[in-house]
Structures are given as C-alpha cells and as structure tokens.
Amino acid sequence: MNTRTSNSGVTPDPADSDGQKTPDWEMLNAIDAGVAVFDPELNLVSFNRKYKELCGYHDSELREGLNLRELIRISMSGQSLEHDEIEQAIKTSTTRLLHGKQNFNFRTRNGNTITISRNPRPDGSVVETVHNLHLELGNSDVSALEHIARLAHTRMMLALDAIGDGFVVYDANDCLTVYNQQFVELNPHISDLIKPGAHYATMLRTGISRNGLRGNGQSEEEIFEQEMERHRNPGVAYERQLQDGRWIRIMEKPTEDGGTAGIRTDITELKNRELEVAKISGELTATSSHLDTALNNMVQGLCMFDAEQRLILCNRQYREMYGFSPEKVKPGMLLSDIMKYSISLGNYRDEDAELALKARHNPNRLAHRTTIKQYLRDGRVMAVMNQPMEGGGSIATYQDITKLERHEERLRAYNNQLARSNKELQEFAYVASHDLQEPLRKIEAFGDRLVKKHGESLPDEGKVFVERMQNASFRMRELINDLLGYSRVTTNAKPFEKVSLCHVIEGVKSDLQIQLQETGGEIAFDELPTLDADPIQMRQLFQNLISNALKFRKPDIKPVINISAEDHSVKSTSKGEVRYWRIKLADNGIGFDNQYKDQIFTIFQRLHGRLEYGGTGIGLATCRKIVERHNGVIDADGTPDVGATFIIDLPVEQEKSEYLQ
After folding, report:
1. Which domains are present in the chain?
2. Over the stretch 209-233, which tens digit does the pLDDT of each residue have?
3. Residues forming beta bridges with residue 11, ordered by sequence position
C-alpha cells in the first residue's frame, strides 16, 4: 500500500495498483467526517461515503476526476446567488488556497450546516475534511446567534467578492471594518495597509505620499484636505485618477451607526471613451465649421435632400438666390413645400411653376444626374444640376447663368448673322464672277477684231492702248477664275472619300508638265498617306503650292520641290481623339521673311509687285480655305534667298457627318 505523510497523520491512497479500495480507506468510511483528496490540478482523486452525505451530493453529481471548481458550483447552485456571484466565489476560494489552509462554514442544499477545512499539501494536492456543525440552541442562544452571524458574514463576503466594484465600510471612528478583493486591486499603492482597523486618514496620506493620486499641480497637503472634505461629507459621487492612469468613480454614503460605506468603480474604459468621443466631437465640430464656411462661401447655391426629398442642409447662397427666409427653409422641410414657398414669393410665372412642380415630383428625374434651366419671373436664368446620392437622396447645385445665357443668345445671333453674311458674300462672289464673264468676253473679242482688222492702220499710241486693254482683260479673266475657285471651295465642295496623296501629286505633275519643262523644275516625294478628303480640292491645293514654288524660283537655278509626310500626332478635340499627318512641301526658291508669313495667306495680299511676279494674290488664300475645310492647319516657314516650306496638318479620318459637307 502506498501512503503519504503529513502533520495530521496518515492519509491513505484511495486504491492500490490493482484499483481495489485499500483497508485504510475503508476505515475512513466508518468515521463521522467526510474526506476528499484532490490532485494539484484540483481534480477529485477519491472520497469517502460521509463526504458525499454531509455535502449533500447526489450519486450522479460526485465522481472521481471532477474539478473542485465544479463541485463548488454544484454546492452553491441551491443558494440565492446570481451566476456572476457564484463565479466570483469560486475564483476567490481557489485563489485563497494558494495562500494556505481554508476553514469556513457552509449551508448545504439539504439544509445541513457543515464546517469545511481545505488543507493544501506540499506536493500541490489538497485534502478536504467536512464535519457536521450541530447548533444546540438550548445551550447558548448567544452561540447560536454568533454562528448565524458567521454564516451571514461568510455569505456577505462571498457576494462582495463576486461584484465587480470595490466595496468598503468604515466605522464611526473611520476605521476599516469590511472590504472586498476588488477594493484592494483598485488601491495597489496601499495594499499593504488594507486590513481591518486601518484608519482612513492614514491610508489616504500614505497613498498620496506614494504618488497614488494625481493632483493637477496641487500639493500633497491640498490633495489630502480635498479628499478628507469629500469623505467627511459623503453623498456626491466624484472621480479620481490614479498615478497609473486609471480612473476611479467614488460614491460614499453614511451608515446608521455613524460610519461610511463606499463603492469604488473602475471607469478607466468609460473615461477613455469619453475622451475619445470628446476628441471626435471636437474634430467633427471643427470639420463642420470648415464645411459651413466652405458651403456659405460658394458661388453656387447648394442643397442636400434625403431619400424622402426632405432638406438635410443648404447654404446661404441658395436662400439668397430665391429670397428664402432662414426661418422658413430649414432642414426637414419637404422639397415640394420649398417649391410651393418659392412660388408664393413670385419666383416663377404660373406656367413655369407648374412645370417645376411636375419635375420635382418625377422620381425618374431625381434618380439620374440631370441639369435643367429655371426661368424666373424677374428674368434670371438658373441652372439646376441634380446629382443622386448612393443609398437615396440627392445633391442639387444652383447657378445663376443669366449673363451666360445673354452672351450665348448674342453669340448665336452673331453666328447666324455671320453665316448669312458669308453665304451672301459667297453667292455674290460666284454670281459676280460668273456674270462678269460675258462682258469680259466681249472686250476680248472686240479687242482681237480691232487688232486683226485695223491693227496696221492704228498709230503707235493706239497700238499701246489696245495692248494694255488686252493685258487688263487677261488679268481680269485670271482674277475672275481665281475668285470662282475661291468661292467654289465651299459652294462646289464634294463629299470626302479616301484619297491617295501620291495619286494627287502625280496628277498635278501631269497638269504642270509644260511649266515644269520650261523651268526645268523637279518634284520629289516620299510615300505619302491616304486621307479622308475632297479629291478635287486636294489637287487644287497641291497645284497652287507647286505652281507658287515654280513661279517664285531663283533665276538660273533649277527649281526643286520636295514633298514629305510623317505621322504627326494625336490631338484631343471636342469630338474625341484625332490622328494627324504632317505634310511638308519645301522649295529652293527666293523664300520670304517670316514676319510676313500671315500676310501671304490673306486674299489679295502680295509680297511682290505684279510686274515682278504675276498672280492675283488669291492662290494661297484658297489653299488655306481648302485646308480649313478639311479641319486642318496650314503654316509656312521662309528664309530669304534660301527657300520656303509649307507645312500642312491634315486628319487621317474625318467625322462621318462631314463627309457630306
């Protein structure tokens, strides 16, 4: 048989290696005391019959391996205690085992009052003994009352240890009489002083000297006097911060015997939340102030409505735009009521008011981003943009666009007037040049007849006059033809199609074959692109430019014209991204000064006298008109006595709607 030795005698193991009860253990079943053995983890190893009987356990409740904590929980299940109180009692009881032997009385579920002794052993196991406590009231009422008082005190301490707050009672002499474990934990700086009989003032002064309290710059004596004043006049809760940063709320009440009872509550988490809320509130207040300032300094009026179209907020500019009173238009007001109020102020004509109300009651309009114009009775025009919010509701902005509307109206009128003028000018140029053809033919015909029939008989002066007349008629015909060509850029424009510039240059070379032979001119070109263009106008464009280069050549130097192209850029326009080709036409002619580069594209403008170089001054103006009709740009770069380069940017593709222009 295995045995362990202790000061109380021999405690036999419950069983030998074969699992059978030993004789010593059977002897314990015969004594009038309950015995139970728990291992270092407080699991039940064995027990005798008297232990089960005195503790009032049922057969199904008591078994080997059950933990002491669970046994305490079963024992206290019949008490009038809350779950938290029971758990706190279990915690307190098992914690105290670490500090030594426990002795206490306990009333079981079957009404018996027992005395329990728990004795920790050196190896960590625990031996619990249970005795029946017999109260013979006839022998001594005082003893009975004392016993009842002890039971009540035990019950009270169990309850006090179960609560989460610190609890303390001082007698009439301000000496400590009752306290729980939480009170000790809330006063770690004086835990060594907390014991029955300790005086409040002594504990307070010691706590202050140990920096247990924060005084906001106060001296130790000032803190002491302040705390004593609160203690002498209990009744109002106050807060105190400990040196470790924790916050404690203290509530004390006077007792009937002249003492004081107090509750200490750890409110650190609550205080931290309050501080966090205060911080967030301050940040929100500052943000709200900034938001209000920003909203009220906006040029536009602004409103925000919830899903039910109730006003959430609006700025000052919105109210001023419509003459709204801040007392009338405020958060919570329905949008329809705001509209009715606006109508009552005379902001709308009757028909406009009806349309506005219908628009406001249209849920489909409010569900999408929309912009409408409001025409007010006083002549102002408001642009109202509605932006729906996620989850319902909307934000509306209001802008006074009266001046913009007036400018747009004037601009439309000017554009219409300009369009009419351009059309009239084009028609005039076409008709005038066409009608001038007939009298010009007569002048030329009669001039030719005069020379043929009477040329020999004319005096020398008469011959000079006739020659000048014929030269003037030739220049007149040239000018008329150029004017017709200039006007036909728009009047006789053809639809755009795919045009190969290589084919265009080959055609121009054929047309200018005689002029090229006479001047010895040479045209060199790389691979040129295919573009959306008017083929006739492209031929006219390059014929004008090449003729110009041949005309303004340097004497005794063979004119050379180089034509090249490069994929230039992609430009963002109102119609999207457009890819452009850059075509360069460079010659080795007389060139020009770049300060006159804008002048050469102006109709009838010439840099040289008519006697030096012929022409009407319309050719390059026609080139610019053709390029602009193709949504391109033409420019020139010249160097005197070196040559000139004409630079043309043309889009690869034209808008489909422009194919018929």
Report:
1. 25-157 (3.30.450.20), 163-266 (3.30.450.20), 298-400 (3.30.450.20), 406-482 (no CATH), 493-659 (3.30.565.10)
2. 887 666 677 888 888 888 888 888 8
3. 4
